[in-house]
Fold this protein.
Amino acid sequence: MNGKTNLPLNDQPTGGGAAQIVCEEVSKQFEHSRRPAVDRISLTVDAGSVVVLLGPSGCGKTTLLKMVNRLYEPTGGKIRIGGIEVHNLPATELRRRIGYQIQQVGLFPHMNIAMNISVVPRLLGWDKQKIAQRSEFLLDMVGLPRDYLPRYPRQLSGGEQQRVGLARALAADPSILLMDEPFAAIDAINRACLQDELNAIHRKVKKTILFVTHDVEEAFRLADKIAIMKEGRLVQYGTPLEIVTRPHDPFVEELVGTQNMLRRLSLLNVQAVMNARHGRNASGYPDGVHVLPPGGAHVPPGGAHVHPEDDLRSALSLLLDSGTEAIPVTDYQERQIDQLSFADLKAALAAQSAAASEAA
């Protein structure tokens, strides 16, 4: 048995659900290299979250990703998935339980789309009917017509091939999805569409996603948390807004363009967020939000709140000072008509990035 076990990982890694990833002092030293490619990194990726590894070329982000599914073996530290150390499973079995998508797509050119998607389910011994149903379901999910199943990769565009690659990575319903710069070679408009598609898919299936990119805008559009790396080390780990508003050092500040993002927030007001989130009703207030009679929904004197005309940079400052996840939006009689959250600010930045990509 060589100390291995065929017991399933926790959190249903072979059939739905999501698994936590924990790295404990993980290192990788390649032979003849001057410094470790990954140097004692510790971080936790919560089950069902999207964590982006961000940093310049050669910082170790792809090396760290590949150690999760043991394409590279760590030279130090431990990696746990759903509470189980990855070396307690044979490498091939582990990899079949983790979805993996790369920049070059990696579709087999001699196989049609149906065969490409079903590679892992066939290895796992699924019956033909279950495989066919899963393949059709996944094509629907990634926004491709089912009549693509008999086609071959060469008959698809680059963006369509990446969608098939994502379908294949999800084929066996893994609890973890590893993505190594999957959209880097796609043009700006299709890249934005694929990012939106990934966000939509994640809302539906809630897999744990570890995503590598060097594109700051992509990181901010996708991530629940961002791990910024430099020369093999973890420099900062936090939410996108934490990193923008509280960069750890000048390297982080320059990498993510902190000042630029704050300027972008200053160009948008709270009203724009409300318009994007709600339809408008005849009274001018968001649909489904009703101003209560005086005394019923007034914000207490001195309580943090914003008006629709306030810019989002000012709103961010108030949110940070309040220590809460959301603050009220009020009219000028200080009656609450809505609320503004950190998630709203992140969505506003993402929408700006999408608009810029389409304009390009």
Confidence is low (pLDDT under 50) at residues 1-15, 280-296. Residues 198 and 222 are 8 Å apart (CA to CA). Residues 264-359 form a domain with the CBS domain Like fold (CATH 3.90.1280.20).
